[in-house]
Amino acid sequence: MAFQVSPGVVTKEVDKTNVVPPVSSGIGVMVGHFSKGPVEEITIINTEEELVNTFGKPNATNYEDWFTAANFLQYSSNLRVIRADAAAAKNAVGAGAAKDIKNRADYDTNGAAGSVWTAKTMGAHGNALKVSICAGANGFSQKYAANTGGVNGAKSVGDTTVTVDSGTKFNVGDIITFDGTSGADTGHSTKYEVTAINGADLTIRQSDQVNGGGLTSAVLDNEEITRRWKFHDLFDSAPGTSTWAADKGYTNDELHIVVYDYTGAITGFDADAAGQRTAAVLETFGFVSQGGIAKTPQGGSNFYANVINDTSNLYYLPRFSLNERYGEIDRVRFAANTKGLGIYDFIPSNPSIEENPPFIGFSLLDQKLAPSIDCFVFDSKGQVESEIFKFNERIEIRLKRKLTIGRSRLNCTAKDKNNNWRWFGHQFYL
Fold first, then answer.
1. Percentage of residues in the chain having pLDDT higher than 90
2. Is the pLDDT of residue 175 over 90?
């Protein structure tokens, strides 16, 4: 305080508040009950958004734990969270009895014998998952003429069942079109989804129509039918023979795999409900191999189990910003129609950056997207100047400066052969 040599007024400000100022570097640790996420494993959470993505939203049974964590993150960006084990919590499986797998380390040690598919998280979220597999060109798309699977008996507008020559040639979920009779262009373009099969009778509804509905045009006896896999429109072409398999003299080793929400518990959309088929898709894995030692051209594993184990992260979903700056209707339409890029072998594996600038790289499931791909990195200073290198399906990004402290993000886009945008986003934290 200045020394007064004559009478006057001295103004002084004294902080009398009893609030402890936030310390962003403070570290917290908590154990709580959450609806999803790894069990008995330390997970670093930096934001409330990460808390939701990793451990789910609060519910009637865990709200006290959840809000304790969320309130701490208002004052700090460094919380170690451990999800407690619940006696009744199990991992959903594709077949057999549910498993008790706490985290990835537990899975690697004890495995999941008896089931091909096992959800990574215990509880209701895992119960909402369903897997659809397409193997081979015929599984992807096939045309049936009369007497080989085509229509057996005419049907009228509005009918919701169609009789075919052989119901065994179809699967529930197939997308079908009626292509007219041989030598006569009497078909129509409306797509229908097969919802049930009873012998030779297919129950159908208009595909991706909220209200479903039956036939929009009459179907003639002996009309040809084209059936397609439920998620054929998410891939540019049918699975076939990989380069690795061809080099070894094998054929038809490739698979397309889709993981989707069939209850609406995760996305809010039910893939098995009319009008919500593709909106419920969580992850896609294209052109992966059935070969246990299959390799990509870059030497990484292309065995479908390894690809899914190493790259599947159902709760780290890319997001588009939709706010007062980026909320125009055109952007909303763009975001809604954008499909995933499809990547694996992403580095750095830890979103919390240890080396700055980080070396960023990933491989494309569809190598044909490489020529059109473009990537941008942004931090608090704006766009980071970078170079992108393309080695067949491998994409490497080299930054020309260090990232600033806090959050940064990577956005990559490409156009497929159908002129559809593909997008991949990833966040980093320093």
1. 27
2. yes
184 vs 245, residue with greater confidence: 245
Least confident of 78-82, 134-138, 323-327: 323-327
* 249 — pLDDT class (breaks 50, 70, 90): very high
Q: Does domain 136-234 have CATH number 2.40.30?
A: yes
Judge whether 115 and 95 are in contact, CB under 8 Å. Answer: yes
Q: What angle do CA 362, 364, 367 make, to 5 degrees?
A: 140
Highest mean pLDDT among 61-70, 187-196, 226-235: 226-235
Predicted pLDDT at 316: 35
The rounded mean pLDDT for the chain is 83
Query: Is residue 16's pLDDT more than 80?
Result: no
CATH for 28-83?
A: 3.30.1490.450
What integer is the mean pLDDT of 187-210?
Answer: 88
> Which CATH fold topology does 329-429 show?
Immunoglobulin-like (2.60.40)
Listed by start position, the domains of the chain span 28-83, 136-234, 243-311, 329-429
